[in-house]
Amino acid sequence: MGAQPSLEDLAEEYGADACAYIEDFDTVMASNHNGLGIYTLPEDAQILKELTEKHGISGGLHSSKSNELADAVSASRAVKTDADVACLRHASAVSAQAHMAMWRGCQAGMHEYELEAEFLRVTLGGGLRHTGYPSIVAAGKNAATLHYDQNNALVGKDELVLVDAGAEYRCFTADISRTFPVSGRFTAAQRDLYSAVLHVQEHAISLYQKGKGWKEEVIRPSRQLYCQLLLDLGLAKGSVDALLDNDIDKLFQPHGLGHFLGMDVHDVSPSGPVPEQLQAGHVVTCEPGLYFVDHMLQPAYEHPQKRGLLNQVVIDSFRPFGGVRIEDNILIQWQGNHNLTEAAGMVKSIEDVEAACKAGS
């Protein structure tokens, strides 16, 4: 088996007061339980119940205790400590370098998995042995599949590649999305699409402030701007209010604006994976996207209210691009916010993305 960490080593690594082997459960409980309540997470409650019954330990064990601990853990994980943020910073720094290495190494005719391999080469080389979630490397129309993870298609010379990938450090994961041109230079139409998504993201990030209500003070104004940009791009017709009333923006962005980030890519909190109100210490992604998803658009073309708000000719001209997403990880501070992704050196302006792509040519 080789050398194993001692109980003292494990306690230090995980920040526990003490550790014990499961084989010593009855001894530990007999000497330390003293009628106190036992707290465990819900998935372990049944195991603990069976152990206490097996060893004749009773009293203090109630099913509600597992819920209480889960609630306490969720509340604790929602607000990051300085040590938590330090882990996220390191994960972001290595992940950012891996993203940009993909841009430099990308060539038409490669497979998506070769780009994924480049991401892993850099993150593994940086000492980060795990990704926080399956990497999405989606070229062309594949970008219209939100959780695309086949990563086996060829990359075309005139395509965009959407990459959503993040490595984790000490269980904390980065969650970064970027979209870049295979050729190293955006076409005019690609620039328009990318600029619109970037505009929405920059505006939304400015709203990530302590005390802001998520739905009314962040989501709603972001959706209003998104709808205006759909009109500006010629993808939609009518008014902003009409687009909002008919959820036209959700046809092009069928996912949320952001979510908690931490030890899980969709981290926990008392309100679930998204905040109700932003607080200092929250880390929340900001990830607007604009996609051309056939199975969502086609029914809308036949819908009596929605079809008159869509410009199918213009939409069809953008469909080969698949979609664009730009995602950063934002730390809410007492005053303003801090973009962990930008601080890690991850660029996103059109000029900076093109320059980073050309650095490999």
Task: Summarize the structure in words.
The chain has 361 residues and is α+β, with helices and mostly antiparallel strands. It is 45% helix and 11% strand. It starts with 6 loop residues before the first helix and ends with a helix.
Question: Secondary structure elements and their pairing?
Answer:
Blueprint: H1 7-14, H2 25-32, H3 42-54, H4 63-78, H5 82-105, H6 112-125, E1 130-131, E2 136-139, E3 160-165, E4 167-169, E5 172-173, E6 176-181, H7 188-206, H8 214-233, H9 240-245, H10 248-252, E7 283-286, E8 289-291, H11 294-301, H12 312-318, E9 323-325, E10 328-332, E11 337-339, H13 340-343, H14 350-358
Antiparallel strand pairs: 1-4, 2-3, 3-6, 4-5, 7-10, 8-9, 10-11
- H/E topology pattern: HHHHHHEEEEEEHHHHEEHHEEEHH
Amount of beta strand:
5-15%
Count helical runs: 14
Mean pLDDT: 93
Strand order of the largest sheet: 1-4-5
Shape: globular
| Uncertain parts | none
- The separation of the N and C termini measures 47 Å
How many strands in all? 11
Largest beta-sheet details: 3 strands, antiparallel
What is the structural class? Answer: alpha+beta
**How many whole angstroms does the radius of gyration measure?**
24 Å
Helical coverage, percent range: 40-55%
